[in-house]
Amino acid sequence: LTWLDAAPDAPPPALVPRSLEMVIPPAERREPLTLPDWEALILAAQDAMRHGELEKVVLSRTRELDFPSPPPAETIFRRIATAYPHTFRFFFEPVPGHVFLGATPELLASAAEGRLRTIALAGSAPRGATPAEDARLGAALLDDPKNRREHAFVVRHILRSLRGLGLHPEHPAGPRLRTLPNIQHLETPVEAALENVMLLEAAAALHPTPALAGTPRAAALDFIRRHEPHARGWYGAPVGWISPNGDGKLAVAIRSALMRGTTLRLYAGAGILPDSDPQAEWEETALKFRPLEEGVRGAELRS
């Protein structure tokens, strides 16, 4: 099965009618990377920053849900897609027996009517329990120096990459809030006339942005390869569609999970700067796991 919904305003998919949803068995939750391990990983990154090797790096961790029998992938996906409708939702089998699925808010690049569109999405805060608290947290995110610096790295990378292709990108003066049910982000939309540049060419120049890898890009990727204890696999990969005329949409496969046999492996990442707090980044990644864990809601999760 290959399925992609790359339209944030599209209605939830109907892969599995609610009346036919299958029961999801109880799962054991495991943290392959412990909090002390995570703290050590961040301290190593910050040491590299002090030595001038990095300015920012995005570190990821996994959470694994172990089931007594293979869980129903389509039921999990339907729940995720329904709970997070304003995202790019994807479900496919990269190899037989493996299902990769998720609901990502991050557009890598789209092409339509001669225009290229992308977004810088970096900087995060939780949603509030009340409208007043939500507004306060959003305003604090917009004013937070650490999150604004993290976001600026991504904006500069996008502008530099598109200008390197001979394009003339346009963007607003500052970021806006992008709100999801569980989290809110800083977002800056960027557009440009395509001017004989193909979508895949633009995507190759942009990917991975500092929102996924870090900066400088080569140094950040090298640090990730040497220090992260897990392979990212499909996590963060471009996923989408391209039509014969060159139009299309490609999203970044974050907020994603790999199902293999009886294990669902969740992925989440956080942007690390010299002043990042490991505990806060741990909590941010836990927040980013939530959409995937909501896909198994109704099943008992035991830590």
Describe what this molecule looks like in 3D.
- This protein has helices spanning 35-50, 73-83, 131-143, 145-164, 199-206, 217-227, 278-294; strands spanning 2-5, 27-30, 56-66, 88-92, 98-104, 107-112, 115-126, 176-179, 183-193, 214-215, 238-242, 248-252, 256-260, 263-272, 301-302.
- It has 303 residues and is α+β, with helices and mostly antiparallel strands.
- The chain has a single domain (2-302), classed as Anthranilate synthase (4-Layer Sandwich).
- Strand 11 (238-242) and strand 12 (248-252) form a beta hairpin.
- The longest helix has 20 residues, at 145-164.
- Strands 1, 2, 3, 4, 5, 10, 13, 14 and 15 form a nine-stranded mixed β-sheet that branches. A six-stranded antiparallel β-sheet has the order 8-9-7-6-12-11.
- The two termini are 31 Å apart.
Major sheet description: 9 strands, mixed
- State the total count of DSSP E strands: 15
Q: How many structural domains are formed by the residues?
A: 1
CATH topology: Anthranilate synthase
Which bin fits the share of residues in helices? 25-40%
The CATH architecture would be: 4-Layer Sandwich
Distance between the ends? 31 Å
How much strand content do the residues show?
A: 25-35%
The low-confidence parts are 1-6, 299-303
Q: How would you state the average pLDDT, rounded? A: 90
CATH superfamily: Anthranilate synthase
Radius of gyration: 19 Å
By secondary-structure content and strand pairing, the structural class works out as alpha+beta
CATH class category name: Alpha Beta
